[in-house]
Amino acid sequence: MYVQSFTDAKGNSGTLFGLLNKCRTAPGQRLLREWLARPLCDIRQICDRQNAVESLVQNSEVRRTLSDMLLPKVPDCSVLARKLVLSKAKLQDCYRVYQLAVLLRHFERTLRELFDDEEKNAPAVKDLMLEPICYALLHFDRYCELIRSTVDEEYHEKTGDFRIRPDIDPELLRISDDMCALEKKAEKAKTHVRKPIACMDLRVLFLAGVEEEKNIRKCKFITVVDVSKGSGVRFRDGDLAEINERHQVLNNIYRTAQQDLEKKVIATCGQLFHNFFSEFG
């Protein structure tokens, strides 16, 4: 029925699913398809669902929070679950599940507001929306604890990349300390370049106006990459380039050193996720 085409009074054609689909997530769209393909037959369940929908219709503030602020941030759980269960996940996938658990806290607070404001439809809100979220959060506690204790969140916020926390392994800690020392040297090198030349830092490269070309070429430690009237002068500092190369080498060593720990973390995440879906699903 949901794939059957129709034409309305204005001549617009489509399907029932296309007409009803206002879902903000891929899982929501799949659920809507399932509901249309297998509609409820129990009158009590139908009324409960209608009551839950009615509560959202009547509370525009909660509805907007869910629709515009929270639901767009929900990842495709089916894809993540498949990766974790089939041992094909990466550390970033494990962290995305953790972010989902954090997001569920916001769902819980929002739905609790809806529940507290309700009288007539409170039981439906509790049974169909609030309690499933609370149950999920309860079972995500161990998962979240694992991620917080093993994934370097500070590094992720700084670089956007993922790695195992250095403080849980002496070798990783040593490499991380060496990388931090190089980063401090890099900052000093950048300051050394910026003092005589008005320029913008582009990580390893620098960018300056064409008028700075003469000053740049006077510096022995600088290599000009290219010059154009439109973009200016791009150049690199020899010391900074060397520091960057050493930093890259250490980063690769860190990645290699963390492999065993990373596999254990991912495997444990997969097991916890599997246990959760075995009970919750």
Automatic annotation (TrEMBL):
InterPro entries: DNA_mismatch_repair_MutS_core, DNA_mismatch_repair_MutS_sf, MutS. Residues 11-281 form the DNA mismatch repair protein MutS core domain. SUPFAM superfamilies: DNA repair protein MutS, domain III. Pfam families: MutS_III (PF05192). It comes from the Eukaryota. GO terms for cellular component: MutSalpha complex. GO terms for molecular function: ATP binding; ATP-dependent DNA damage sensor activity; mismatched DNA binding. Gene3D superfamilies: 1.10.1420.10. One of its GO terms (biological process) is mismatch repair. This is DNA mismatch repair protein MutS core domain-containing protein. It comes from Strongylus vulgaris (Blood worm). The lineage of its organism: Eukaryota, Metazoa, Ecdysozoa, Nematoda, Chromadorea.
